[in-house]
Amino acid sequence: MFSHARRDVRFAAQRMAVAGRRAAAPVTRMAHVPHVPHVPLVPLVPLVTLVTLVTLVTLVTLARRTRARRASVRLFS
After folding, report:
1. CA-CA distance, 8 to 2, in Å (whole number)?
2. 27 phi and psi, to 5 degrees?
3. pLDDT one digit per residue (tens) for the chain, 77 residues
4. What is each CA distance from 15 to 21, 27, 56, in whole angstroms?
């Protein structure tokens, strides 16, 4: 039990130190940050590629099916 309490105190101290560092950070360095956020672009790239791949595959399969159907109609008629 005491070890948990000690750990919590240590974590709290670390959090306070981090908060203090954040508060002490100069504001001039933060000025250039609000450009286009870079984070949401990363998951979008594979998503876009996946969507394009799926659409291409569906189009190809549909084209093959229609072609096969036409060929079978020609054969049986």
Report:
1. 10
2. -75, -25
3. 556 666 677 777 777 776 666 555 555 555 555 665 556 666 777 888 899 999 999 999 999 999 888 877 777 76
4. 10, 20, 50
User: Which amino acid, residue 19?
Assistant: A
Structure tokens that stand for 70 in this block:
């036409």
Stated pTM of the model = 0.39
DSSP string, the chain: -HHHHHHHHHHHHHHHHHHHHHHHS-SGGGTT--SS-STTHHHHHHHHHHHHHHHHHHHHHHHHHHHHHHHHHHHH-
